[in-house]
Structures are given as structure tokens and as C-alpha cells.
Amino acid sequence: xxxxxxxxxxxxxxxxxxxxxxxxxxxxxxxxxxxxxxxxxxxxxxxxxxxxxxxxxxxxxxxxxxxxxxxxxxxxxxxxxxxxxxxxxxxxxxxxxxxxxxxxxxxxxxxxxxxxxxxxxxxxxxxxxxxxxxxxxxxxxxxxxx
Length: 146
Ligand SMILES: [Zn+2]
Description:
There is one protein chain. The chain folds into two domains: 68 residues, no CATH class; 59 residues, no CATH class. The chain contains two helices and ten strands, in the order E-E-E-E-E-H-E-E-E-E-E-H. The strands form three sheets. Strands 1, 2, 5 and 6 form a four-stranded antiparallel sheet that branches. Strands 7, 8, 9 and 10 form a four-stranded mixed sheet that branches. The chain has a two-stranded antiparallel ribbon with strand order 3-4. With 146 residues, it is of the alpha+beta class.
């Protein structure tokens, strides 16, 4: 996995100079000049080089096209399957109000727990707790001083 980017110091900073991604005027508008290896030609062309040369001359800052190589996954976000959503039931309805009726009328994929269950609704990983219901339940418990 390769990434190419134009980097250089900020031109208009009143703080310590920082190096960051340069932007350029492209067909897609004014965008950060970063692309994957297979798109390198999009930022490594004469039109962008002229823009960047003008910036470098005007502000006296060096600009570099760098190649970056993947080193570490700091955060990994993977697609999740559609998990059944578990709502908190209060007075026969979901606290979040996603549906006006009782659970028997809810669409498939929605389940419930009662307000006396664990407020954090610690569920097996094959279920997703409804964030809105949990927030409302936690707020109600906090308000009641429980
Ligand atoms: Zn809910």
C-alpha cells in the first residue's frame, strides 16, 4: 500500500512552522494533494507542479512530493453485519421512540430488554444495543439518583 502526497510548511502561520499536506487546484476543486500509488499521475503532473513552484517561490518554502509506505494499523474499522438492535422497553414502548407500537409490532431485527435489566445492556456480540435507548435510560437513572 503506497501513498503519495505533496508536503510542505504552512505559508500563513503565525505559530511555529508546521509541515502539512499541500492543497492544489484540480478538476475536483481545491483538494489536499494525496493519492494512492495507482493514482500518482493525478498529482504528479505539470499543471500542479507549476502551482506548487509558484507557492514555493512566493513564500520561500520547500515543497516535496513524498512516497509513504504503510507501517502500522493504528485503528481498524471493519464492516459489521446487520446486528439485531436491542432497545430498552419502558411502559411497553422503546425509549428511543423508533416505533410507536409495542414489540409485537416492531419490524424484524429489533429486540428489547426491560428498564430493570443492566442499564449498560451488556449484550453478546451478536446484538447491538440501541445507543439512544441506553442514553435515555442512563439519563433517567442518573436523574433519579440511582
Ligand atoms: Zn432504541
